[in-house]
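Let's practice the habit of predicting before peeking. Look at the sequence and jot down your guess about where helices and strands might fall. Then scroll down.
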Amino acid sequence: MSHFNPGRRRVIQGVGAGLLLPGLAPAVIASVKDRPQLTDGVQSGDLLGDRAMIWSRCDRPARMVVEWDTRSLFSNPRRFISPLADSRSDFTARVELTGLPADQAIFYRVQFEDAQTGVASEPWFGHLRSVPQQRRDIRFVWSGDTVGQGFGINPDIGGMRIYEAMRLRLPDFFIHSGDTIYADGPVPAQLTTESGRIWRNLTTEAKSKVAETLDEYRGNYRYNLMDENVRRFNAQVPQIWQWDDHEVVNNWSPGKQLDERYQTKDITTLVGRARQAWLEYAPMRLQGADQGGRIYRKLSYGPLLDVFVLDMRSYREANDDNLGAAKPFLGRAQLDWLKGGLKASKAQWKVIAADMPIGLGVPDGEVSPGVPRWEAVANGDPGAAQGRELEIAELLGFLRAQQVRNHVWLTADVHYCAAHHYHPDRAAFQDFEPFWEFVAGPLNAGSFGPNPLDKTFGPQVVFEKAPPAQNTSPFAGFQFFGEVQIDGQTAELTVTLRDLDGVSVFEQKLQPT
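Done guessing? Here is the structure:
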């Protein structure tokens, strides 16, 4: 796999720093302070066919100019220009590159042209590999949960080093499984951890309180982008973003009651602001006929892989005891989309990227004394499917009836890593074929778990690694990401769970059927 040479990148940046892009009116070269500034690096994402999204952010009203080439010397660049980026989008911009040759190293450079003067910023360089059309080896990584429980960017340990560990695996892309920020988790200057060791954070005003205003939600994304590991990773690894609860507030659903930290008490208002900020900072194309930013989507990666990205947050009914009749979780439109997409898929492997696990109980307080409220699919009752479980039962039964095989579930959320095997012989609901679910995370947050299993779909814990106590700091080492490799010749799929340093803690090989 061809990758950008960091040394060459520095040379090119040095050469390009004093150049104006072609087409600009002649002018005296502006001083650095007069030029637009790329404040948060660059990102690519949502590779699809001959296309890829490029994202960046400026410090003033400007248009983003992206040039790409198959060679790092940019001898034959193709040029794309964004609409005006201004305060309405927090000066973020995205463009969709088109016409990318299949399975090629794509080098891109990003500049911003000042809306008033036309003066260009210094360039920022990035790299991706375009989608293959033929069978080849594929490697990608996934995880979730960034800057949670007050554990932010710690300069004493080199920041969020797990992003560097993932980058060094040279993945084709990264699935962020949700909790891209912790909008409800302020970051203090320091924390005392379980060992008595002091965890020290970089701090910002936006992370000094729970997010309520649109700019406070935006500031949570800007905080994460201060980390050098994250910016380096973003420039070299295309991303697929999901969202979950902490993009708004812990365990939110309709009717969520907010605590005393919040002056804004209406959850619908907060969700609207949080969703806008998420869409501004995610390197994804807008989905749906109304271009309203639908989050669930399918991304194909050649004949060996389709990725089905779920949204388990936007369409659910309020969290409750999760018993009785069917209760929306994915929602009818998304569930029908998923069933149809999986049936129609010709890919060897169908990866279902879920922001929450199927068979783990995730509690959310109590509905009434002694009656638990549930946050995810499971309801703690090992018997027949009820509540939200009925959507999963419908899906699994459909996949069996349609003989849709080779689907693998990847998720995060619970802040430890695990491998679960689901089998009808162990289940109360038995109308499905066996499948695997793999859990990774957190990326940079407190560690928890393990969570209790709900036996409705017959899960078995094949592996789990969780801390000895709840909310253990990253110092303890229970930070994890997952890696998937698909062999281009045999189509064998290997899942590896890796720790903060990229060391394997578990591996499972799956043969296609």
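How did you do? The longest helix spans residues 267-281.
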